[in-house]
Design goal:
With about 900 residues, the protein is α/β, with parallel strands linked by helices. It is built from 27 helices and 29 strands. The protein starts with about 20 loop residues before the first helix and ends with a helix.
Length: about 900
């Protein structure tokens, strides 16, 4: 990939502060990126495209930590692909969020003593647009603080002119094909918001309620049938009682009439296989206007549909003497009246799931209503065929394909009308003279009968209707735009598992229907961000986390690192503040390592980097490890394994680069060999440059800040080329040498710790290699051993005999010996170890006695017993090591 232009930053610690300041850096670099238009797609005309359209956040308030996770994963992919040379488009936008936004605005107005009806439709919509502008701006600010590389020049809103045109086009086309119709159906009704709800807008909560057993007498008979219900107020709308056709108890009653208690209306006994004859009494009251299953039974038996409530949840004129009562007050009164009539058999406590409106909190009412619907079966069949033939979306993890298929194979017609004012108004007009319905792409003012007495449908479309078109409507469809031609289908959709049926599925069937293509190649499913205890975050629990608060405390990079590297596709993750702190510490480690390098690079320039000369073992090793890291990180990001990506990067940067290579580099940097010094500078500058590129998609701010201080070429790291695996850096023999050196150094440090000898005190060290080849390797690297083991005397040969009073160690390929004479006072060390041994003996005996106590084992929780066993094993291991050390010292 070509760099934009060459610039050179002088490396100096004067321009790189002692500590990293996220606040100063983040604002500076985000403004720089935007001003440079580095996120704008379309500047690489000949490059392959990579497209993500952002799942549009609702303009209802501030973004939460779940948005931060979702968008961080998208940004990682976008930044990576941009660096890999793709023409990468990450298209931003937001959703008008129908009922959610209208509810928020209505709540605000109520605080001022005003309702939407007081304002009227037009004035109310002006208020909602004002709300939208405020929160859309807030979302922009949050995106900026989180460092998202969005192409703002292409930003869309579900109610903007272009998307509104796409919505009308889809509605009209589906209507013309007979796939949109208007009819009566049972829908989820929110009596507080007075609107239909989609299934996803209903929260089911476990409620302690009651099961009421009611006796319905058979007409002109002493017999009766007992039915049970959790909603006795709906019995006023009963139009039948159903029994199983093969239930012998009721064979003689099928076709006869029952007398509905209280109101005296006669209803038939019908036979229907919907009834489970083994459950309860085997008889079910049928209320077609207030229950979805009863509605279907009612259609099969041509039963009347009697609504006994109005849209606000109060009983209506069909409820007789209960007219005007709240549904729950009516429930209490009906129970009392039935008890008085002697037809209340019993009341049982009953725990059951009750639907509540996600927005208003009201108990949902299954409600018969005239609504607009999409006929789903024909649309679903095409999507199912595509998925099963291998031409569908690639779900990651693949188990979520089953979730998708299960929903779409069992799909019901979709109720798309909402009794709201905020949204896409349904493009249907009714002639009040000839009763004709007109559906049109353009507003109409005259009926074909000549009448101008037309009235547009008051309802708006379900928010999910416009969201279902998002991947292609945002790119200009139905127009044949350049963006639509170039960037569609999109490459990746990132979303949570909770909206696979309601959004992912609908985007697929609309994409296939209107573009003849899948709207995206991959669907990456992530889990929810839960609190540290694993609970779902919610306002009621007060356990939510504001991403801006996290950024204020620790910086955006730390939050992004914690969220992305803690995530596994499809799995929930727990938000822990200590993990964010660890991420901040990791960022500081990178900063300090880079600052050390710059102190030693001086005025070293990018064009001076030369890796073709004589490289040390450490040089060849770190380049090999960088090479392996490049390959693994690239593979893992392409596989969406962000947790593993973080592990690989962390291990390379913290362990290999900071703890080992930088320490090894000091030998030549502080030495007098100018050629070795220049080579080390080249390696250090190159490795740090490549490392910043690798972490940039996850930690964009600190990587840009460091990269700009390093010798570099190009305007910004966002457009720097992605590191690639290079065979010239393969150095298996250097890896073997370094692993042996590191094993020796670690072993010596462990021995020093065991005998309480500080690293500052020089020691004698004897190394016995297992082969001639290892002997050569150790001789070649003895400078490293002398430096990092701090030896006063170093012997390396194959005929070493074990000295008296020495600590020994064994590593792969060599034995090592540390003579203790003169290093420690052996008599004092023996006394100390004897005392430690007594303590450990006591601890082992104490726990063994505890675990041998049958009473303790019988009563203690399993977790406590396991903890005691773990402690016992730990103390026993320490005791064995002390015994071994005593044996070594005594010779």
């Amino acid at each position: 990939m070509e760099e934009t232009k060459t610039t050179q930053t002088q490396a100096s610690t004067t321009s790189m502060p002692t500590t990293y300041d996220p606040k100063e850096s983040e604002k500076k670099w985000y403004d720089y990126w935007l001003n440079g238009q580095f996120f704008k797609a379309g500047q690489r005309k000949d490059a392959e495209t990579y497209t993500i359209v952002i799942p549009p956040p609702n303009v209802t308030g501030m973004l939460h930590i779940g948005h931060a996770l979702d968008c961080t994963l998208q940004d990682i992919m976008t930044r990576t692909k941009r660096m890999q040379g793709y023409d990468a488009l990450w298209l931003p936008g937001s959703d008008h969020a129908g009922i959610a936004t209208q509810t928020k605005v209505e709540q605000k107005l109520r605080e001022q003593g005003v309702t939407r009806y007081d304002l009227g439709r037009e004035k109310f919509l002006e208020k909602v647009w004002e709300w939208k502008e405020i929160y859309a701006d807030s979302i922009h600010q949050q995106w900026a603080k989180m460092g998202f590389s969005l192409d703002y020049s292409r930003e869309r809103f579900t109610l903007d002119e272009g998307l509104s045109k796409a919505v009308r086009e889809v509605f009209v086309k589906l209507y013309e094909k007979g796939l949109i119709y208007r009819g009566n159906y049972i829908i989820n009704w929110d009596p507080a918001a007075r609107t239909a709800l989609s299934d996803i807008e209903v929260e089911y909560k476990e409620v302690q309620g009651h099961l009421y057993h009611l006796r319905y007498p058979v007409k002109d008979s002493t017999e009766s049938i007992v039915v049970a219900t959790t909603r006795p107020e709906t019995m006023l709308g009963d139009t039948a009682v159903a029994v199983h056709p093969e239930d012998e108890r009721y064979q003689h009653l099928i076709g006869k009439m029952l007398v509905l208690p209280i109101i005296g209306r006669e209803i038939p006994i019908v036979a229907d296989e919907y009834v489970e004859k083994e459950f309860g009494s085997g008889a079910v009251k049928i209320t077609p206007a207030h229950d979805p299953n009863d509605f279907e039974v009612g259609k099969r038996h041509d039963l009347p549909q009697i609504l006994v409530m109005n849209e606000s949840g109060k009983m209506n004129e069909n409820a007789g003497k209960y007219n005007g009562m709240d549904r729950f007050d009516c429930r209490k009164q009906i129970v009392a009246d039935m008890k008085e009539q002697g037809v209340l058999v019993k009341i049982e406590d009953h725990v059951h799931q009750v639907g509540h409106s996600e927005r208003s909190g009201a108990v949902i009412e299954p409600y018969l209503s005239t609504q607009w619907f999409v006929k789903m079966k024909p649309l679903a069949e095409r999507a199912i065929e595509a998925q099963k033939s291998g031409k569908g979306a690639n779900f990651v993890p693949d188990r979520f394909e089953k979730t998708y298929l299960h929903w779409i194979e069992n799909v019901r017609d979709w109720c798309i009308s909402r009794q709201l004012w905020w949204g896409h108004r349904i493009p249907a007009w009714y002639c009040e003279d000839c009763q004709q319905t007109h559906v049109s792409r353009e507003d109409i003012t005259q009926c074909s009968c000549g009448s101008t007495n037309l009235k547009q449908d008051n309802d708006v479309l379900d928010t999910w209707f416009s969201s279902a078109l998002w991947p292609f409507s945002t790119l200009g469809w139905p127009e044949k735009t350049e963006d639509m031609e170039r960037y569609y289908p999109t490459s990746l959709l990132v979303t949570g598992y909770d909206i696979i049926p309601f959004w992912v599925s609908r985007m697929i069937f609309t994409g296939l229907e209107f573009t003849n293509q899948m709207p995206f190649k991959d669907v990456l499913i992530h889990g929810l961000v839960r609190d540290s205890e694993g609970q779902k975050m919610s306002k009621s629990l007060g356990n939510g986390v504001d991403p801006i608060e996290v950024i204020e405390k620790y910086g955006a990079d730390a939050m992004r690192w914690m969220l992305s590297t803690s995530s596994t596709p499809g799995q929930d993750l727990r938000f822990r503040w200590e993990k964010v702190e660890q991420a901040r510490n990791f960022a500081n480690k990178i900063w300090n390592a880079s600052r050390f390098a710059l102190m030693n690079l001086g005025d070293f320039k990018a064009e001076e980097i030369d890796l073709s000369g004589s490289l040390s073992t450490a040089d060849r090793w770190i380049l090999h490890r960088l090479n392996e890291t490049v390959r693994e990180v690239t593979r893992l990001i392409d596989s969406y394994e962000f947790g593993e990506t973080g592990r690989v990067l962390y291990n390379f940067i913290w362990d290999d680069l900071c703890d080992w290579y930088i320490e090894f580099s000091k030998i030549s940097l502080y030495g007098t060999d100018e050629q070795a010094k220049k080579t080390t500078k080249s390696v250090l500058a190159y490795v740090l440059d490549q490392t910043q590129r690798l972490i940039h998609p996850i930690m964009p701010f600190i990587s840009e800040e460091i990269w700009q201080h390093l010798p570099h070429q190009g305007e910004t790291i966002t457009l720097a080329s992605w590191p690639v695996y290079e065979t010239r850096f393969e150095a298996a023999e250097a890896v073997r040498e370094m692993e042996l050196l590191m094993d020796i150094i670690r072993s010596v440090r462990n021995i020093r710790a065991e005998v309480n000898v500080p690293m500052s005190k020089k020691i004698e060290l004897m190394l016995k290699p297992a082969s001639d080849e290892i002997l050569v390797n150790l001789k070649r690297n003895e400078g490293y051993i002398q430096r990092f083991c701090n030896t006063s005397q170093l012997e390396i040969h194959q005929d070493i005999t074990t000295p008296d009073k020495a600590m020994t160690g064994i590593v792969t390929g060599a034995e090592l010996f540390l003579p203790l004479a003169g290093l420690i006072d052996i008599s004092q060390e023996l006394a100390r170890l004897e005392k430690e041994l007594q303590t450990l003996h006591g601890e082992v005996e104490r726990i063994e006695k505890k675990l041998g106590n049958e009473g303790f084992v019988a009563k203690a929780p399993a977790k406590v017993i396991e903890e005691e066993k773990t402690k016992l094993a730990d103390y026993a291991d320490k005791r064995d090591k002390v015994i071994a050390r005593l044996a070594e010292l005594r010779g």
